[in-house]
Amino acid sequence: MLSAFTSLTQTFARSRLDSSQNNLQSAIQKLSSGLRINRASDDAARLKISQELSQQSKTLTAATKNAMSAISMAQTADGSLSEISNLLVRIKQLAVSGRDNALNQTQVKAISDEMEQLRREVNSIANRTTYNDRRLLTDELGSWVTVLNDEKLDGNWSDQYVDSDSVRVIINAEGDDLVRLNSTSGLTSVKGYNGATSDGAATNGSWTNGTAQEIGFNASWEDAKAVLRDLEFQRQKGGGEISVQVIPAAMYSYTDDSGRISYYEVVTDALTWTNARAAALSRSFSGLDGYLANITSAGEYNFIKDKVAATAWIGASDVGTEGTWKWMDGPEAGTTFWQGTSTGSAVNGQYSAWATGQPDASGDGANLWADQAYMWDDLADAATTPKYIVEYTGNVGFQSMIAWAPGNANGNATFQVGVNARDTTTTSAFRDVRIATNNRDTDSALIFETLATKIQNAFSASSYRTSSDFANIANLADDVIAEVGYRRSELGALQN
């Protein structure tokens, strides 16, 4: 017979042991955390108070960091504005000196040259003044960013072109990012860009209204420089990459899906395919070697055919083995893309755009056939075409990654410096201080832009170096000095 007994003494001892262990664990937790209240059971009434104090303490720590960032930004900007103030005082001093009628033209020219150099240095300081990779004195806390300053323009292209040269400028923003110009003076459109159906058409409104992802125009280098100084970029959902290509007006630029850039030159010369190939290989552009164009994608084909508008040789040939079509030169040299005649097939999915019934084993070279909507034609080597297309692969332009995200539309900077959302401070001191024709300060841009125009005019032509002109520059410099002073005062208040 089985019997069950209950020991009250053992049960009581077990209960006291469990209670002691719980108390010990609670004590250890308090000792290790340094907190009297770790859970609701420690002190239910004071837990809520503890949590509120804890979150306020952590929030205040973050707000303190915000305040320190604001002070650091203000100190960075103020240091640069101090240097800019000194340069502006020198500009005013030179403008006053320019009103001395005892000076000869050479001396007056030297004054205008120095003012222009000082103007550029002001802009250079503004462009170099950054905090956390964001420029503080070009209004880039707003939504548009200046792409090219004078140094970048000079560094990339000044040794390639003179003011009278005819150039073609192609601007591309990645993804959904946007570009815009602030002026279209002297520009004409390029076929295939912004809906232009021919070269030389009227300028397109999207160039300036902030909706364009690409812009293509022809201009003299003098006019191109003027508008490129005003080129602006707005990051949307793209990667922040922008490309600016400046090439001779007779050339085109294309960027494929992998980011590879090719330049195309359509040469008018009635040659056989063999002679056209030799001629293409003898050509060069900015250190890049030429070759008959290799068309390896639908995108590249559509780009080229829209711009050639004539029968022209390309770089495909079956000269080695009839029916084995290869790209002969360039990066794809030796790549077989088609096997057989018109009933043949692409090799490894390679791109081709043969016209109906082509290739027909009648020749060794391929051309864009104008009579067949610029599809490809297998043409006898003894035949000639009026043109041939030279391709150059590489990058001779300007590319930049804009490490920047959109900010406030008005360019003001706001910092939360307290526990609550209402505990903020806002300053408008981080605004555009460039003496440039595209100054973006919503309140004071006019005086900066007018001063830029006056100084650039004096630098460019003697007719703008009169006593009256220098008086205007001196007065405008006064106004800009005062505006910079106001901003420095605001930055000083922010630091306090």
Radius of gyration: 35 Å
How big a fraction of the residues is strand? 15-25%
> How far is the first residue's CA from the last residue's CA?
90 Å
Shape: flat
List low-confidence stretches: none
Task: Count every beta strand, where a strand is a DSSP E run of 2 or more residues.
Answer: 23
Q: Work out the helix count.
A: 9
Helix content range of the residues, please?
25-40%
Structural class: alpha+beta
The description of the largest β-sheet is: 11 strands, mixed
Mean pLDDT over all positions: 84
Topology at a glance:
Blueprint (H helix, E strand, L loop, with lengths): L7 H26 L10 H54 L7 H24 L1 E2 L2 E2 L9 E2 L3 H8 L8 E8 L4 E3 L7 E2 L24 E7 H8 L3 E3 L6 E8 L2 E5 L5 E11 L1 H9 L2 E2 L2 E5 L5 H11 L3 E6 L6 E4 L7 E5 L5 E2 L18 E5 L5 E5 L5 E9 L4 E4 L11 E4 L7 E4 L17 H16 L6 H29 L1
Parallel strand pairs: 14-20
Antiparallel strand pairs: 1-2, 3-8, 4-7, 4-9, 5-8, 6-7, 9-21, 10-11, 11-20, 12-13, 13-20, 14-15, 14-18, 15-16, 16-17, 18-19, 22-23
Helix pairs in contact: 2-3, 2-9, 3-8, 8-9
Structure description:
This protein is of the alpha+beta class and 496 residues long. The protein is 37% helix and 22% strand. The protein starts with 7 loop residues before the first helix and ends with a helix. The model has no long low-confidence stretch (mean pLDDT 84).
Short description:
By secondary structure, the chain is of the alpha+beta class. It has 9 helices and 23 strands. The mean pLDDT is 84.
What attributes characterize this protein structure?
37% helix, five-stranded antiparallel sheet, 23 strands, alpha+beta, 9 helices, flat, 496 residues, eleven-stranded mixed sheet
